[in-house]
Fold:
Amino acid sequence: MAIDLSETLVIGISATALFDLSVADGVFNQQRKNDPDSAMEHYRRYMLENESQPLPDGTGMPLVKALLALNDHKKADDPQPIVEVVVISRNSPETGYRVLKEIRRRGLNITRSAFTAGEAVTHYLDAFYVDLFLTTNEDDAQRVIDTNQCAAAVMRPPPTQAFQCTETQVRFAFDGDAVIFDDTSELINQTHGLDAFHQSEDERQDIPLEPGPHAKLLIKLSKIQERLPGRIEYSPVRIALITARNSPAEMRVIKTLRNWGVYVDEIFFLGGLQKARFLKAFNPHIFFDDQDAHLDPAASDVPSAKVLYRSTSALNAVMHDKIRQKNKSQPD
Structure:
């Protein structure tokens, strides 16, 4: 009988998000500069020669280990795992052997994987029931966002500062607009200014915000909390919403979450304060945001990932135009 993972939180993760393969990638990229025709063979040989060497943690490793530990809380009469992690990689099966060997060496309970030898991996996310796809490949993440298959994010490099995560909880930190919620409100902020944004949100506080690219993930996490033992306030899954919004734009957020039936443990309405300061205190296993201005200072302290805009989004065009204008204004 086929296995159904529809009630399980399924994380799809690339090999480069799970492990730090930056040295191997550097070998491939350098050879591609020198001799593109031989780059793949050179990379294959490097991976074979080093397949017994341990791989360091990638940015997604703390999250994966903490999520897999949630299965220890599964009730005896619950037939489905709480969490499933699937490695979905552009490596070939041959070069992916090193990844599989490292998974076994670490004793990670990851039993499913796919290696596509350079082909896009996004075709297989639905087949694996993936709720969240974590990758270092921006093209793959963009394809997922554009097709609305599932939540997706581009992982930043691992934190440069010592990162000590709690082992008794899995901690998620989400931005609000353009991540949990759609980008309509943020578009007003970017095109008409903060005052217009505040007025619009206050006037529409009784109208729920539309779901954003990570809304389904948040709702799935809320359902996972219900499957776990104990009161939800003491759940081994803890969720924080960390947003640049402040009053009078805060009420619409809380009313929207109520409308969705979603429980969030902590909300921070920061009104322009740097998110990194609060993230360092909350200490999440992963932080999702759409703007580099928030991700850059946070990524040195906590695992962080960028949520891309849809290619056809008006906000995407506005933000790219602002970047171009900023680059033009800078001296050569």
Q: What stands out?
A: The radius of gyration is 21 Å.
